[in-house]
TrEMBL record:
Composition bias, Basic residues: 105-117
Classification via Gene3D superfamilies: RNA-binding S4 domain
Protein name: RNA-binding protein
Keywords for this protein: DNA-binding, RNA-binding
Region listing for Disordered, in residue ranges: 104-131
Presence of the UniProt keyword DNA-binding in the record: yes
Domain called RNA-binding S4: residue spans: 5-72
Species assigned in the record: Flavipsychrobacter stenotrophus
CDD domains the record matches: S4
MF GO annotations: DNA binding; ribosomal large subunit binding; single-stranded RNA binding
Pfam families registered for this protein in UniProt: S4
Amino acid sequence: MDTKVRLDKYLWAIRIFKTRSLATAAIDDGKVKWNGNSVKPSRNVALGDRYDIRTPTRKWTIEVVGIIGNRVPYEEAITKYVDQTSDEDKIIIKPLTSGFYTGKRISKTGRPTKKQRRDLGEYLGDAPEGD
């Protein structure tokens, strides 16, 4: 068991972030707080520390109960922290995609068929071609 582990490495090892660089970027952006204050990625993790973490999909509040420096299987990783997240924050946020349906044709699906062109022309009030 390691006695000194950087915060970014710890968050990567317990599988909060997929890569260590994502963990470092989140810490640098102020999305990881310790006692309400922003921290640096190089901060050493200690037993009993509580961190508030915002990821793109949800919020976490964790308390450190074990220190590890290497990535381990999920079943072992979850034993190294206690999830103290409130029930409201445990709801997974699904990010909105930029491709939501607007009534237009789906992009990059090829040219419209003849029937689709006729239907579109009728909808827009254009006279059908060839009549």
